[in-house]
Specification:
With 211 residues, the protein is α+β, with helices and mostly antiparallel strands. 23% of the residues lie in helices and 33% in strands. Strand 7 and strand 8 form a beta hairpin.
Length: 211
């Protein structure tokens, strides 16, 4: 997979989506930026981008992902694989349902995915050097280039959803202390039950990740 480096960019996610629409890049490709000025966060919010933090977006074709992967839960899939790479390096990072990176009780990053044509664009933002107030940052030092190259190799191995989910569900109980936003509502995860396709049941309703 080709990796394109930028010193500064408004949003790796928006840039990659527009580049695919305009046929100026070919999938598979990865965009990595040193600074992001208008990143995309959850529910259309901006993700504040301090220089030196991790900002990346990659595009893979749907057919190159595992056959058993529920596309609506691809954010969980990418997030957990990325989290494991950091955990192997000594981090205590964990994935809050459905797509946020946490260190103890503070958010330090997140994942969003967008399906465009037959492609899946996955974007990751992670505080590794600095964090806004009320957020946290990664608890280990990393080599960004080395980490991204290893992440790409993991994705190319097409690790099954079943294998990833079997590990993710063990940690799901950590999410129960938190809320999440669904449409215009704030929903408690305290009584949520996790289903195999990555969705959750809350008060008898089946809810999917919207990013």
């Amino acid at each position: 997979m080709e990796i394109l480096f930028f010193d500064k960019i408004d949003s790796t996610h928006k840039f990659l989506l527009n580049s695919i629409k305009n046929f100026t890049v070919k999938c598979p490709v990865c965009i990595l930026a040193e600074q992001q000025t208008n990143g995309v966060g959850s529910r259309g919010n901006s993700w504040i981008g301090e220089k030196g933090n991790l900002f990346l977006s990659l595009c893979v074709k749907s057919k190159h992902l595992p056959d058993d992967l529920p596309i609506q839960s691809s954010s969980i899939y990418f997030a957990y694989i990325f989290k494991e790479l950091l955990a192997c390096r000594g981090s205590e990072i964990w994935v809050k349902w459905p797509n946020d990176f946490y260190l103890r009780n503070r958010k330090i990053g997140g994942v969003i995915t967008t399906k465009i044509q037959e492609n899946i664009v996955c974007s990751i933002g992670l505080n590794i050097l600095a964090a806004p107030e009320d957020f946290g940052k990664l608890d280990i030092e990393i080599d960004k280039k080395e980490l991204i190259e290893e992440f790409i190799k993991k994705i190319e191995k097409k690790i099954s959803w079943k294998q990833v989910f079997s590990k993710y569900k063990i940690e799901f109980h950590k999410s129960k202390k938190f809320d999440f936003h669904y449409n215009e509502s704030v929903v408690s995860l305290e009584s949520a039950e996790l289903d195999f396709d990555g969705s959750i049941f809350v008060d008898g309703k089946k809810l999917y990740n919207q990013r």
